[in-house]
Amino acid sequence: MITNLKTFHLKTKIFSGLGAASKIGAVAKELGGARCLLVADPELDRHGITDQVRRSLTEAGIAVQTSSKVEPEPYLDNADDAASIGKELGADLVVGLGGGSALDTAKAAATLLTNGGKAEDYIGLNMVPKPTAPTIMIPTTAGTGSEVTFTAVFTNRATKVKGGINSPFLFPDAALLDPELTLSLPPNVTAFTGMDALTHAIESMTSLSSTIFTEALSLTSIRLISQSLRRAVYKGSDIDAREKMLLGSLFGGMALADAGVGAAHALAYPLGGNYRIPHGLANAILIPHVMEFNLPAAESSLALIARNMGESVEGLSPRWAAQTAVDAVTTLAYDIGVPETLYDLGIPKSAIPLLVEGALKVTRPVENNPRFLGQHEAESIYESAFGE
Q1: What's the first-to-final CA gap in the chain, in angstroms?
Q2: Which CATH architecture has domain 187-385?
Q3: Residue 104 has what pLDDT?
Q4: Got the DSSP string for 164-220?
Q5: Which CATH class name applies to 13-182?
């Protein structure tokens, strides 16, 4: 009889290093691509990055149509619009280029190309009946890890509710991690997306679903991000820091794909849905408060997090070692300019009941959190994040 069975799955072939993006044509040909839908963050047009990727695909003999209608915290109709362009082309391959919004939109568009319907039809777990079109992801931020996850998150424009398309079919076929493409990120975006990646690593580490496989990935992510995020924010041209941030984000994404996330994500979702707060920024403000809340239930995991952040915990009790992790994350967020409270984002405290209601509907992260999260507990964390 098999007991305590642990599994780990990763479909994505990863190319990492300077110039990795130049392999896009060859990788597309390997996947049998002849007509490509390129879903790109519109901001990348200004830096010539979209043209660079399009040119590489064209030189490989692949026809390309671009969809740049990708909004921050994307709406479901962004995916529908991208899929329409892909269908007109007869696309047999989808490339996502940009931050998490573009990558998620690309994964959803690839889903619609082979499954039909609209993106809203597939919100939930295992709602996608057939494989998607082949996908290649090229992240230009170090944050979401979407290039190696099976999730695409969207906001319903009418209801303002955020939800994800979650299916093993969404695991991308390939990911190209090129630190050169992240050099143009401004400091605030570097900070917020970097804290998003750190939150993924922390929450996958403390998750009730964590395993020895995901813990190794989570701690590697935490170590890389702690070593490099300050440098990436304050010296954006530091290519070593940029590369370590991309890898940290990647490992965090690999960990969360298997172990899931927790309360910080559940509490962040309604901030994005109702107030359009960027997901990384919401996570950055909430994660120290969630760590503090989880401390009694996750002492050993938080102590390991402190050690991998480079903190000295020798001789400390497990409780104080865990508290060191909370303090280290708080200090890191402060050092890189993350706003300290939800008040700083212009959110009224009167919104707490609405936020709590929305957060508790995000059931998978709520149930995955190491400490029970109910209405009273969610209210308490939000109040703490308001500085109360």
Answers
A1: 52
A2: Up-down Bundle (1.20)
A3: 98
A4: EEE-GGGS-SEEEE-GGGGTT--HHHHHHHHHHHHHHHHHHHH-TT--HHHHHHHHH
A5: alpha beta
